[in-house]
Design brief:
This protein is an alpha+beta fold. Helix content is 41%, strand content 20%. It is flat and about 80 Å long. The N and C termini lie far apart (70 Å).
Length: 159
């Protein structure tokens, strides 16, 4: 009887561990959104020289403003998808005499670089990198064929 109880307890604990793994894979997790919803379409409409009211109408109320002056507005957006992917964005707007003077964290429309120093990839560089990777793959395949001693496989294959 004692061995039966020990066996039952061991099987029960093992089933619990498996059930928790299944629950972690099956349970839907809600997306988490905090702060402002920062949409690129709204940011594309921002222009230096807009009034505070125009910016507030376009972007909504800022999450944070400067504690000692109202000349800085911070829009902070955070989103975590159900799969755990996190995206964050911070946009800081500076005002001078009730007019928008400076923007940080805004990606300029038309593919220009944003204020964070990031630039879009160069198409020629991407194509060159892909060609280089393809050549390396072909070379490694040819080396494997040579090591096996199988001359029937062609060594020059077009991409």
């Amino acid at each position: 009887m004692r061995s039966f109880l020990i066996l039952f307890a061991a099987l029960s604990l093992g089933a619990c561990a498996t059930a928790s793994n299944v629950v972690n894979r099956v349970v839907y997790k809600l997306p988490t959104r905090q702060g402002n919803v920062i949409d690129q379409k709204q940011l594309d409409q921002l222009q230096v020289g807009m009034t505070r009211d125009q910016v507030k109408f376009l972007m909504g109320t800022a999450v944070a403003t400067g504690p000692f002056s109202e000349d800085r507005w911070d829009y902070i957006g955070y989103y975590k998808s159900p799969r755990g992917e996190v995206s964050e964005r911070t946009v800081t707007l500076y005002f001078d005499a009730n007019k928008l003077n400076k923007m940080e964290g805004v990606q300029i429309a038309g593919g220009a670089a944003d204020n964070l120093g990031m630039q879009p990839p160069n198409a020629k560089a991407v194509i060159d990198q892909q060609k280089k990777e393809h050549m390396e793959d072909t070379r490694s395949q040819n080396e494997r064929v040579t090591e096996k001693g199988d001359p029937s496989t062609p060594t020059n294959q077009a991409p």
